[in-house]
Specification:
Radius of gyration: 23 Å
Structural class: alpha+beta
CATH architecture of the largest domain: 2-Layer Sandwich
Number of domains: 3
CATH topology of the largest domain: Pseudouridine synthase
Shape: globular
Number of helices: 10
Order of helices and strands: EEEEHEEEEEHEHHHHHHEEHEEEEEEH
Number of strands: 18
Largest sheet: 10 strands, mixed
Strand content: 15-25%
Protein backbone atom coordinates (compact mmCIF):
# COMPACT_ATOMS: atom_id res chain seq x y z
CA UNK A 1 0.00 0.00 0.00
CA UNK A 2 1.27 3.44 -0.82
CA UNK A 3 1.79 5.69 2.15
CA UNK A 4 -0.57 8.64 2.38
CA UNK A 5 0.45 12.24 2.93
CA UNK A 6 -1.57 14.42 5.25
CA UNK A 7 -2.82 17.43 3.29
CA UNK A 8 -1.58 20.90 4.13
CA UNK A 9 -0.87 24.29 2.60
CA UNK A 10 1.26 24.46 -0.51
CA UNK A 11 4.33 25.68 1.42
CA UNK A 12 4.41 22.74 3.81
CA UNK A 13 6.18 19.42 3.42
CA UNK A 14 3.72 16.57 3.90
CA UNK A 15 4.61 13.95 6.47
CA UNK A 16 3.58 10.38 5.67
CA UNK A 17 1.10 8.16 7.47
CA UNK A 18 0.04 4.57 6.83
CA UNK A 19 3.20 3.39 5.11
CA UNK A 20 1.69 0.06 6.11
CA UNK A 21 -1.58 -0.70 7.95
CA UNK A 22 0.44 -1.79 10.99
CA UNK A 23 1.74 1.78 11.34
CA UNK A 24 -1.77 3.16 11.90
CA UNK A 25 -3.46 1.31 14.76
CA UNK A 26 -6.85 2.19 16.22
CA UNK A 27 -8.26 0.45 19.30
CA UNK A 28 -11.78 1.26 20.42
CA UNK A 29 -11.98 2.09 24.14
CA UNK A 30 -14.94 1.39 26.42
CA UNK A 31 -18.32 0.07 25.40
CA UNK A 32 -20.67 -2.50 26.94
CA UNK A 33 -19.57 -5.50 28.95
CA UNK A 34 -20.98 -8.93 28.15
CA UNK A 35 -23.87 -9.82 30.49
CA UNK A 36 -27.13 -11.29 29.21
CA UNK A 37 -29.45 -10.43 26.38
CA UNK A 38 -30.65 -11.18 22.86
CA UNK A 39 -27.68 -9.62 21.03
CA UNK A 40 -24.30 -11.28 20.63
CA UNK A 41 -21.31 -9.09 21.42
CA UNK A 42 -18.19 -9.52 19.28
CA UNK A 43 -14.74 -8.00 19.07
CA UNK A 44 -14.01 -7.27 15.42
CA UNK A 45 -10.33 -7.08 14.49
CA UNK A 46 -9.50 -6.12 10.93
CA UNK A 47 -6.69 -5.01 8.66
CA UNK A 48 -7.24 -3.35 5.30
CA UNK A 49 -11.04 -3.24 5.53
CA UNK A 50 -13.51 -0.37 5.91
CA UNK A 51 -16.06 -1.19 8.65
CA UNK A 52 -19.22 -0.63 6.56
CA UNK A 53 -17.90 -2.40 3.48
CA UNK A 54 -16.69 -5.38 5.51
CA UNK A 55 -19.99 -5.77 7.38
CA UNK A 56 -21.91 -5.56 4.10
CA UNK A 57 -19.75 -8.33 2.66
CA UNK A 58 -20.01 -10.47 5.79
CA UNK A 59 -23.79 -10.11 5.72
CA UNK A 60 -23.82 -11.93 2.38
CA UNK A 61 -21.24 -14.51 3.39
CA UNK A 62 -22.76 -15.30 6.80
CA UNK A 63 -26.41 -15.11 5.75
CA UNK A 64 -27.51 -12.19 7.96
CA UNK A 65 -29.08 -8.83 7.18
CA UNK A 66 -26.90 -5.73 7.03
CA UNK A 67 -29.32 -4.06 9.46
CA UNK A 68 -28.67 -6.83 12.03
CA UNK A 69 -25.22 -5.42 12.85
CA UNK A 70 -24.67 -2.77 15.51
CA UNK A 71 -21.54 -0.61 15.77
CA UNK A 72 -20.41 2.15 18.09
CA UNK A 73 -18.04 3.69 15.54
CA UNK A 74 -16.58 3.26 12.07
CA UNK A 75 -12.92 2.39 11.61
CA UNK A 76 -10.63 3.23 8.73
CA UNK A 77 -9.68 0.83 5.97
CA UNK A 78 -5.96 1.66 5.90
CA UNK A 79 -5.26 0.57 9.48
CA UNK A 80 -5.19 -2.22 11.99
CA UNK A 81 -8.31 -1.74 14.12
CA UNK A 82 -10.27 -3.35 16.94
CA UNK A 83 -13.86 -2.51 17.86
CA UNK A 84 -17.02 -3.97 19.35
CA UNK A 85 -19.98 -5.00 17.20
CA UNK A 86 -23.28 -6.66 18.00
CA UNK A 87 -25.32 -9.10 15.94
CA UNK A 88 -28.85 -10.38 16.51
CA UNK A 89 -27.62 -13.90 15.67
CA UNK A 90 -25.02 -15.99 17.50
CA UNK A 91 -22.55 -17.26 14.89
CA UNK A 92 -19.72 -18.18 17.25
CA UNK A 93 -16.16 -17.18 16.35
CA UNK A 94 -15.54 -16.42 12.68
CA UNK A 95 -12.50 -15.29 10.73
CA UNK A 96 -11.27 -14.64 7.22
CA UNK A 97 -8.59 -12.81 5.29
CA UNK A 98 -7.76 -9.65 7.23
CA UNK A 99 -10.57 -9.97 9.79
CA UNK A 100 -11.78 -11.95 12.79
CA UNK A 101 -14.92 -11.96 14.94
CA UNK A 102 -14.40 -13.13 18.51
CA UNK A 103 -17.55 -13.86 20.51
CA UNK A 104 -17.48 -12.11 23.90
CA UNK A 105 -20.96 -12.97 25.18
CA UNK A 106 -24.40 -11.36 25.11
CA UNK A 107 -25.83 -7.89 25.74
CA UNK A 108 -29.34 -6.55 26.10
CA UNK A 109 -29.19 -3.82 23.45
CA UNK A 110 -27.85 -3.38 19.94
CA UNK A 111 -24.72 -1.20 19.73
CA UNK A 112 -25.39 2.30 18.44
CA UNK A 113 -23.16 5.13 17.29
CA UNK A 114 -21.26 6.63 20.22
CA UNK A 115 -21.68 3.65 22.57
CA UNK A 116 -17.98 3.77 23.44
CA UNK A 117 -15.60 6.09 25.30
CA UNK A 118 -13.32 6.85 22.37
CA UNK A 119 -10.31 5.45 20.54
CA UNK A 120 -6.64 4.90 21.28
CA UNK A 121 -4.33 5.64 18.35
CA UNK A 122 -0.76 4.50 17.75
CA UNK A 123 0.72 6.09 14.64
CA UNK A 124 4.12 5.99 12.98
CA UNK A 125 4.84 9.37 11.35
CA UNK A 126 7.41 9.26 8.54
CA UNK A 127 9.27 11.60 6.22
CA UNK A 128 9.61 14.38 8.84
CA UNK A 129 11.93 17.20 7.81
CA UNK A 130 14.58 18.70 10.14
CA UNK A 131 12.50 21.89 10.32
CA UNK A 132 9.44 19.92 11.44
CA UNK A 133 11.54 18.10 14.04
CA UNK A 134 12.76 21.47 15.35
CA UNK A 135 9.17 22.76 15.75
CA UNK A 136 7.79 19.55 17.24
CA UNK A 137 8.64 20.11 20.93
CA UNK A 138 7.04 23.57 20.98
CA UNK A 139 3.93 22.36 19.18
CA UNK A 140 3.57 19.42 21.56
CA UNK A 141 3.69 21.91 24.42
CA UNK A 142 1.06 24.14 22.81
CA UNK A 143 -1.15 21.15 22.05
CA UNK A 144 -0.94 20.14 25.71
CA UNK A 145 -1.79 23.69 26.84
CA UNK A 146 -4.47 24.67 24.34
CA UNK A 147 -5.98 21.44 23.12
CA UNK A 148 -7.05 21.32 19.51
CA UNK A 149 -10.11 22.44 17.50
CA UNK A 150 -12.29 19.36 17.08
CA UNK A 151 -12.39 19.56 13.29
CA UNK A 152 -14.09 17.07 11.04
CA UNK A 153 -11.11 16.06 8.91
CA UNK A 154 -10.72 15.10 5.25
CA UNK A 155 -11.95 11.50 5.75
CA UNK A 156 -15.41 12.93 6.42
CA UNK A 157 -15.50 14.59 2.99
CA UNK A 158 -14.63 11.65 0.77
CA UNK A 159 -17.79 12.30 -1.28
CA UNK A 160 -16.53 15.74 -2.38
CA UNK A 161 -16.01 16.23 -6.12
CA UNK A 162 -13.84 19.24 -6.96
CA UNK A 163 -14.79 20.71 -3.60
CA UNK A 164 -18.54 20.15 -4.15
CA UNK A 165 -20.55 17.88 -1.86
CA UNK A 166 -23.45 15.88 -3.33
CA UNK A 167 -25.06 16.09 0.12
CA UNK A 168 -25.27 19.87 -0.22
CA UNK A 169 -27.20 19.41 -3.47
CA UNK A 170 -29.60 17.04 -1.68
CA UNK A 171 -30.22 19.64 1.04
CA UNK A 172 -31.18 22.06 -1.74
CA UNK A 173 -33.34 19.32 -3.33
CA UNK A 174 -31.23 19.52 -6.49
CA UNK A 175 -31.28 15.79 -7.12
CA UNK A 176 -30.09 16.10 -10.71
CA UNK A 177 -26.91 17.87 -9.61
CA UNK A 178 -26.23 15.33 -6.86
CA UNK A 179 -26.67 12.43 -9.25
CA UNK A 180 -24.52 14.15 -11.84
CA UNK A 181 -21.67 14.22 -9.34
CA UNK A 182 -22.22 10.57 -8.42
CA UNK A 183 -22.82 9.10 -11.88
CA UNK A 184 -20.44 11.07 -14.09
CA UNK A 185 -17.50 12.23 -11.97
CA UNK A 186 -14.69 9.74 -11.30
CA UNK A 187 -13.63 9.33 -7.68
CA UNK A 188 -9.99 8.61 -6.73
CA UNK A 189 -11.06 5.29 -5.19
CA UNK A 190 -12.96 4.14 -8.31
CA UNK A 191 -11.66 1.05 -10.08
CA UNK A 192 -11.54 0.58 -13.84
CA UNK A 193 -15.16 -0.58 -14.23
CA UNK A 194 -16.86 2.35 -12.49
CA UNK A 195 -14.52 4.76 -14.29
CA UNK A 196 -15.57 3.39 -17.66
CA UNK A 197 -19.25 3.59 -16.69
CA UNK A 198 -18.93 7.17 -15.50
CA UNK A 199 -17.08 8.17 -18.64
CA UNK A 200 -19.92 6.76 -20.74
CA UNK A 201 -22.62 8.39 -18.60
CA UNK A 202 -20.90 11.77 -18.81
CA UNK A 203 -21.04 11.56 -22.62
CA UNK A 204 -24.83 11.07 -22.75
CA UNK A 205 -25.73 13.14 -19.66
CA UNK A 206 -28.46 14.01 -18.76
CA UNK A 207 -30.47 11.78 -21.13
CA UNK A 208 -30.00 8.35 -19.61
CA UNK A 209 -32.42 6.70 -22.05
CA UNK A 210 -29.50 6.29 -24.42
CA UNK A 211 -27.36 4.43 -21.91
CA UNK A 212 -25.35 1.45 -23.11
CA UNK A 213 -24.14 -1.53 -21.12
CA UNK A 214 -22.88 -0.70 -17.62
CA UNK A 215 -20.71 -2.88 -15.36
CA UNK A 216 -21.01 -1.38 -11.87
CA UNK A 217 -24.14 -2.57 -10.04
CA UNK A 218 -24.70 0.57 -7.86
CA UNK A 219 -24.69 2.74 -10.99
CA UNK A 220 -26.97 0.28 -12.81
CA UNK A 221 -29.51 0.49 -9.96
CA UNK A 222 -29.57 4.29 -10.11
CA UNK A 223 -30.00 4.40 -13.89
CA UNK A 224 -32.73 1.73 -13.75
CA UNK A 225 -34.61 3.69 -11.08
CA UNK A 226 -34.34 6.85 -13.21
CA UNK A 227 -35.74 5.08 -16.27
CA UNK A 228 -38.64 3.46 -14.37
CA UNK A 229 -39.76 6.59 -12.51
CA UNK A 230 -42.98 8.25 -13.76
CA UNK A 231 -42.26 11.41 -11.73
CA UNK A 232 -39.14 12.93 -10.15
CA UNK A 233 -36.68 10.54 -11.85
CA UNK A 234 -33.59 12.12 -10.28
CA UNK A 235 -35.06 11.70 -6.82
CA UNK A 236 -35.82 8.06 -7.65
CA UNK A 237 -32.21 7.59 -8.77
CA UNK A 238 -30.97 9.10 -5.50
CA UNK A 239 -33.17 6.78 -3.42
CA UNK A 240 -31.65 3.81 -5.28
CA UNK A 241 -28.27 4.59 -3.68
CA UNK A 242 -27.50 2.41 -0.62
CA UNK A 243 -28.79 3.98 2.58
CA UNK A 244 -25.34 3.96 4.21
CA UNK A 245 -23.88 6.01 1.36
CA UNK A 246 -26.76 8.48 1.40
CA UNK A 247 -26.19 8.92 5.10
CA UNK A 248 -22.49 9.64 4.50
CA UNK A 249 -23.39 12.29 1.90
CA UNK A 250 -25.69 14.09 4.32
CA UNK A 251 -23.26 13.77 7.22
CA UNK A 252 -20.54 15.35 5.08
CA UNK A 253 -22.76 18.38 4.45
CA UNK A 254 -23.60 18.65 8.16
CA UNK A 255 -19.93 18.32 9.12
CA UNK A 256 -18.80 21.02 6.68
CA UNK A 257 -21.45 23.35 8.08
CA UNK A 258 -20.18 22.69 11.62
CA UNK A 259 -16.55 23.29 10.58
CA UNK A 260 -17.56 26.62 9.09
CA UNK A 261 -19.29 27.63 12.31
CA UNK A 262 -16.10 26.94 14.25
CA UNK A 263 -14.02 28.80 11.65
CA UNK A 264 -16.10 31.94 12.25
CA UNK A 265 -15.55 31.63 16.00
CA UNK A 266 -11.77 31.33 15.60
CA UNK A 267 -11.49 34.14 13.07
CA UNK A 268 -13.41 36.39 15.44
CA UNK A 269 -10.97 35.72 18.28
CA UNK A 270 -7.55 35.47 16.63
CA UNK A 271 -5.55 37.68 14.33
CA UNK A 272 -4.73 36.05 11.03
CA UNK A 273 -1.03 35.49 11.82
CA UNK A 274 -2.00 33.44 14.90
CA UNK A 275 -3.97 30.92 12.87
CA UNK A 276 -2.04 28.13 11.20
CA UNK A 277 -4.13 27.16 8.14
CA UNK A 278 -4.20 23.71 6.59
CA UNK A 279 -6.03 23.04 3.32
CA UNK A 280 -7.88 19.78 2.78
CA UNK A 281 -8.21 17.90 -0.49
CA UNK A 282 -11.90 18.84 -0.47
CA UNK A 283 -11.02 22.52 -0.70
CA UNK A 284 -11.91 23.23 2.94
CA UNK A 285 -9.43 24.97 5.23
CA UNK A 286 -8.81 24.15 8.89
CA UNK A 287 -7.28 26.71 11.26
CA UNK A 288 -5.17 26.05 14.34
CA UNK A 289 -4.33 28.74 16.95
CA UNK A 290 -0.54 28.76 17.03
CA UNK A 291 2.23 30.99 18.35
CA UNK A 292 4.37 31.38 15.21
CA UNK A 293 8.10 30.58 15.18
CA UNK A 294 10.56 33.42 15.52
CA UNK A 295 9.58 34.63 18.98
CA UNK A 296 11.16 33.42 22.19
CA UNK A 297 11.45 34.13 25.89
CA UNK A 298 8.93 36.37 27.65
CA UNK A 299 7.21 37.53 24.46
CA UNK A 300 6.61 33.95 23.29
CA UNK A 301 5.33 32.91 26.72
CA UNK A 302 2.96 35.89 26.82
CA UNK A 303 1.64 35.09 23.36
CA UNK A 304 0.95 31.48 24.32
CA UNK A 305 -0.93 32.63 27.42
CA UNK A 306 -3.03 35.00 25.31
CA UNK A 307 -3.91 32.13 22.98
CA UNK A 308 -4.98 30.00 25.94
CA UNK A 309 -7.26 32.76 27.24
CA UNK A 310 -8.87 33.32 23.84
CA UNK A 311 -9.46 29.62 23.27
CA UNK A 312 -11.46 29.55 26.50
CA UNK A 313 -13.81 32.14 24.96
CA UNK A 314 -14.91 29.70 22.27
CA UNK A 315 -18.31 28.14 23.09
CA UNK A 316 -17.81 24.70 24.62
CA UNK A 317 -20.06 23.16 21.97
CA UNK A 318 -21.63 24.13 18.67
CA UNK A 319 -24.84 22.59 17.27
CA UNK A 320 -24.93 20.24 14.32
CA UNK A 321 -27.44 21.85 11.94
CA UNK A 322 -30.30 19.65 10.81
CA UNK A 323 -32.85 19.88 8.01
CA UNK A 324 -36.19 18.14 7.44
CA UNK A 325 -35.28 15.23 5.18
CA UNK A 326 -38.35 13.07 5.70
CA UNK A 327 -39.23 13.25 1.99
CA UNK A 328 -35.97 11.55 1.03
CA UNK A 329 -35.71 9.03 3.87
CA UNK A 330 -32.87 11.14 5.21
CA UNK A 331 -31.50 11.24 8.70
CA UNK A 332 -29.29 13.71 10.53
CA UNK A 333 -28.58 13.59 14.24
CA UNK A 334 -29.61 16.64 16.26
CA UNK A 335 -26.83 17.17 18.78
CA UNK A 336 -23.92 19.44 19.70
CA UNK A 337 -20.22 18.74 19.23
CA UNK A 338 -17.34 19.77 21.50
CA UNK A 339 -15.35 22.58 19.89
CA UNK A 340 -11.98 21.95 21.57
CA UNK A 341 -10.58 18.61 22.71
CA UNK A 342 -7.43 17.52 24.53
CA UNK A 343 -5.76 14.30 23.39
CA UNK A 344 -5.40 11.97 26.36
CA UNK A 345 -2.12 10.41 27.48
CA UNK A 346 -0.25 11.93 24.53
CA UNK A 347 3.15 10.37 23.99
CA UNK A 348 5.72 11.05 21.29
CA UNK A 349 8.91 9.08 20.81
CA UNK A 350 12.17 10.86 20.09
CA UNK A 351 12.58 11.37 16.33
CA UNK A 352 15.01 8.97 14.72
CA UNK A 353 16.26 8.36 11.20
CA UNK A 354 13.58 7.25 8.74
CA UNK A 355 15.07 4.32 6.82
CA UNK A 356 12.39 4.52 4.09
CA UNK A 357 12.56 8.20 3.17
CA UNK A 358 15.17 10.86 2.54
CA UNK A 359 18.85 10.54 1.68
CA UNK A 360 22.24 11.74 2.89
CA UNK A 361 21.50 15.30 1.71
CA UNK A 362 17.84 15.47 2.66
CA UNK A 363 17.59 13.71 5.98
CA UNK A 364 14.19 12.53 7.14
CA UNK A 365 13.02 11.33 10.53
CA UNK A 366 10.22 9.22 11.94
CA UNK A 367 8.50 9.07 15.31
CA UNK A 368 5.64 7.24 17.00
CA UNK A 369 2.64 9.12 18.39
CA UNK A 370 0.10 7.57 20.74
CA UNK A 371 -2.95 9.28 22.24
CA UNK A 372 -6.63 8.86 23.02
CA UNK A 373 -9.50 10.86 21.52
CA UNK A 374 -13.23 10.99 22.25
CA UNK A 375 -15.72 9.40 19.82
CA UNK A 376 -15.93 11.16 16.47
CA UNK A 377 -12.55 12.93 16.75
CA UNK A 378 -9.87 12.48 14.08
CA UNK A 379 -6.29 11.36 14.69
CA UNK A 380 -5.13 13.09 11.49
CA UNK A 381 -6.28 16.36 13.06
CA UNK A 382 -3.59 15.90 15.73
CA UNK A 383 -0.97 15.15 13.08
CA UNK A 384 -1.83 18.32 11.14
CA UNK A 385 -1.51 20.41 14.30
CA UNK A 386 1.92 19.03 15.13
CA UNK A 387 3.57 18.92 11.72
CA UNK A 388 1.84 21.41 9.44
Amino acid sequence: MNSKAVGSTRRDHLVKLRSSPEEFRVDEVGGPQATEGEFTLYRLEKTGHDTLALLARLSNELGVKRSDWGTAGLKDRHAVTTQLVTLSTDLGDRWGEGWSLTRLGSVAERLRSGDHDGNRFTLVIRDITPEQVQRLEGRLDQLDRHGIPNWFDSQRFGSAVNGELPGAAIIERNFERAMGLYLTEAHPSDRAGPRRDKRHLSQIWPNLHGVGRLEHKPLIRCVSAWRRAETEPWKAAYLAIPRDLRGMWLSAWQSRDWNRQLTKELEGLFEDHLLQRVELNSGDVLSYPNAPPGKSGVSKHSLIEDISRNIQKIPATLPMRVEDLSDVEGFLTDHSRDTVIHPGDLKCSSPQRDERNGNSRNKRSKCTLSFSLPPGAYATNVVKRLFH
